[in-house]
Design a protein that fits this description.
This protein is α/β, with parallel strands linked by helices. The protein has helices at 9-13, 41-54, 65-74, 101-113, 140-147, 151-156, 158-169, 204-217, 220-225, 229-249, 256-261, 263-273, and strands spanning 5-6, 30-34, 58-61, 87-90, 117-119, 134-136, 172-175, 180-183, 189-192. The chain has a nine-stranded mixed β-sheet with strand order 1-9-8-7-6-5-4-2-3, with helices on both faces. The longest helix is centred in the C-terminal third of the chain and has 21 residues, at 229-249.
């Protein structure tokens, strides 16, 4: 734990891209999203909602048809045709053992694209099939399954587990929990602890993926120039996620859409305080 530096709201504010007067929807960042499934279409909706509330110029939703219909009903500004993107968010709400043909092909295209990848849930194994910059976002059970360890072992020392996974996989690891540990293979170690305990609820990880996907898409140039940028963006996503959850909770229960609704105001407050 002593290897980790606390990532504060002031730190996070420096990694939020504020649009310039001459920006357009393409220069602000385009995020490709392949999430959700026939079994879990809501994961796609939550991730898309979170990404759009965090701020991107365009979002391309490229997942299966049933999930796409829910996404478009909620967010008609989402684009469902493929095209150039600056980053991908992949895997939320997807069972890797039951991939459909559309998702399998989209995963293959994303892995070959060379742009940064945010890998959640059903896409975690893509880390071994791409040369692109990668950040993986497992919770304790997913990390245990991927590493062959027990959940109790991960829970006993999540900070060390994140470091071991980052060094073994050669990828940045965001290990979700009440305290979120971020470790990169080049030695960046950050911890964010802004989340209330009420955030332990279904769909929270889908929203975190959307927030992180948007931050990555809007910082593609920084990721090219700085090996530690993905880790800092991951920690920033955890801070935004946690603070938005606190706003939504107000000390009581929250819903994930309620959290997402608070993301713009959370970002505005971070920028104002900075």
């Amino acid at each position: 734990m002593t290897d980790y530096a606390a990532w504060t709201p002031r730190d996070a504010a420096a990694w939020i891209a504020v649009p310039r007067d001459d920006d357009d929807k393409y220069s602000r960042g385009v995020l490709g999203v392949v999430t959700g499934s026939d079994q879990y279409p809501g994961a796609a909706v939550l991730g898309v909602e979170a990404a759009l509330h965090t701020g991107v110029g365009m979002l391309r939703y490229l997942g299966p048809e049933r999930a796409a219909s829910f996404v478009l009903q909620r967010r008609p500004e989402a684009v469902t045709s493929p095209g150039r993107v600056q980053a991908y968010l992949l895997g939320s709400g997807i069972d890797p053992d039951t991939l459909d043909g559309v998702t399998t092909e989209r995963f293959r295209q994303a892995a070959a694209s060379g742009v940064p990848l945010v890998l959640d849930a059903g896409a975690l194994s893509l880390r071994d099939r791409t040369d692109a910059p990668v950040v993986v976002t497992p919770h304790f059970r997913e990390l245990a399954k991927a590493t062959g360890r027990t959940v109790d072992d991960i829970a006993a020392d999540p900070a060390a587990a994140a470091i071991e996974a980052a060094e073994t996989w050669g990828a940045t690891v965001l290990l979700k929990g009440h305290s979120t540990y971020v470790a990169s293979p080049n030695g960046v170690r950050l911890v964010a602890a802004s989340a209330p305990s009420w955030l332990a609820t279904a769909g929270a990880g889908d929203a975190l993926g959307g927030i992180l996907g948007a931050l990555v898409a809007t910082h593609a140039d920084a990721i090219d120039a700085d090996e530690g940028a993905l880790a800092r963006l991951a920690a920033t996503a955890a801070v935004v996620h946690g603070l938005a959850a606190s706003r939504a909770s107000g000390g009581g229960p929250l819903t994930v859409l309620g959290l997402v609704d608070r993301v713009p105001a959370t970002i505005a407050a971070l920028l104002a305080d900075a």
